[in-house]
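Supplementary Methods S3. Complex input for the SN-glycerol-1-phosphate-bound model.
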Amino acid sequence: MTIAEYIVKMTKKKKLHFSLLDPDKQSPEIAGSIAKTAEEAGSSAIMVGGSTLVSQRQVDDTVKAIKGNTDLPVILFPSGARFLSKYADAIFFMSLLNSRNLDYVIREHVKGAPFVKHTGVEPISMGYVIVEPGMTAGKIGEADLIKKDDIETAVGYALASQYLGMKLFYLEAGSGASFPVSNKMIRAVKKSIDIPLIVGGGIRAVKTARQKAQAGADIIITGTKLEEEKNLKQGLANIINAMED
Ligand code: 1GP
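Predicted complex, serialized as C-alpha cells:
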C-alpha cells in the first residue's frame, strides 16, 4: 500500500495528527528525539519542511535522524525544489494554489519532478491554500490570502483541487498564526469535498484541536507546539486524544 492510500484509508477510520518539524529550528538529533516522542504520543506521520532553509544537507540530516528514531512515515513538506531529500518516504507534491507567483503553483514542481522520479520518493498530490493571517508562509509564498470569513473562495479552491485530481486538500493559516482557520470554513469545505481535509496553523490548545476535528478536519498538523511544549509527550497525547472526542 502506498503512503497516500494508507493516509486516505486511515482518515476513514479516525482523525489523524501529523507533526511538522522544520530542520532550521533544531539539530537533527533533537528532531529525531521529538519525532520519537510524537510517535509515542500517537502522531501518525512526521512532516519535514520550512520556509527558511539554507541547505539540502540540513534536510537530509534531519530526515535521516528521524528515520533512525521512529517507524512513522516521513513526508517532505517542501517550500521549493532545492530542499528535497532522497531519504524521505514521501513528498507532499503540493501546489500553492492562491500564490501570485507561478513558481509556487507549478514551476518549482517542474524543477523537482525529476528528483522525485529518480529517487522513488512517493509523490502525494495536494492542493494547498493559505488563509489569513498567513504568517511567513503567506509572505514568502506571495499568497493572495483567503479572507478568514470568505467561505465561498475556500470551498472553490477545495473543489478545484479535487477536480484537478489532487489526493488531499490543505487549509493553512500559517505557522504560529494567532488564530487558526475558522470552524465555519472547515465545516463548509469538509461538506463539499470527498478527499481528506488537512488543517494547520495556530493550533496549540487541546480545545482548538478538538473543535477543528469536530468541524471536519481529517488531519491536524502542529509545528510550533512541538518546539514549545515542555512535557511534549503528554501535551501532544492530550491534543491527539481530544481529536477523537
Ligand atoms: C504547518 O502551519 C502549520 O503548515 C504549522 O503551524 O506551527 O502554528 O503549528 P503551527
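The CA atoms of residues 92 and 124 lie 5 Å apart. Residues 102-119 form the longest helix (18 residues).
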